[in-house]
Amino acid sequence: MSERQESAARNRGAQTREAAQRVALRLFTEQGYEATSLRQIADEVGINKASLYYYFDGKEAIVQSLLDQRGDEVEELLAWVGEQPPSPTLITDAVLRWVDSFTAEKLQGIRFLAANPLLLAGSTPKGEEPRVGAGLSRLADDLSHHLPERTPETVVLLRMALLSINAAVQAAAATDAPDEAVIAAARRAARVMTGTLIAGDAEERR
């Protein structure tokens, strides 16, 4: 097999894996985790069950892969923050990068995990915090050192800004708001909260 053929095969494999993740998450959300079978996922992706096993050895592995993706993303954001020079806008920039990383599919992930807390707990080693949660905690700690005035109140407000997407998903549950509106609302709330951290502290120092 030539190098070009190997590259094409890798790309097809990655696309199939991503398709399986998307289909699985949709089915888990629409009809429930227990009610969804690997065969159903494979059929919707357009492959046989044996081929799906090449990528995932079970439904738990699919869930874990989705969690790992978000864990990777928050760790990439942590690395980005560490590379930035001190700036009055760094907190806002970092928080909005996190909010803007969400898509409609990732909102499905939040809803799915909120409806299946035991599944999330089961995917995390005993005594440890889920990887995404641990990463966000580290991100909040890192960003808190850039606060104009670091107080218990401003630290809590910073963490609220990082979790604005989760709050928006929960608030929208009883509405017919489309996912784009949920993400836009989360972004506006995050911008207001991070702006308050800077503007409020500046006002207090006058």
From TrEMBL:
Entry keywords, A to Z: DNA-binding, Transcription, Transcription regulation
Domain of life, per UniProt, equals: Bacteria
Does the keyword DNA-binding feature in the UniProt annotation? yes
UniProt key word Transport: no
Q: Which residues bind DNA?
A: 37-56
Q: Which residues form the signal peptide?
A: none
InterPro entries listed in its UniProt record: DNA-bd_HTH_TetR-type_CS (IPR023772), Homeodomain-like_sf (IPR009057), HTH-type_TetR-like_transc_reg (IPR050109), HTH_TetR (IPR001647)
Positions of the HTH tetR-type domain? 14-74
Database matches in Gene3D superfamilies: Tetracycline Repressor, domain 2
Question: PANTHER family from the entry?
Answer: HTH-TYPE TRANSCRIPTIONAL REGULATOR BETI, HTH-TYPE TRANSCRIPTIONAL REGULATOR RUTR
Name the record gives this protein: Helix-turn-helix domain-containing protein
Q: Which organism is it from?
A: Leifsonia williamsii
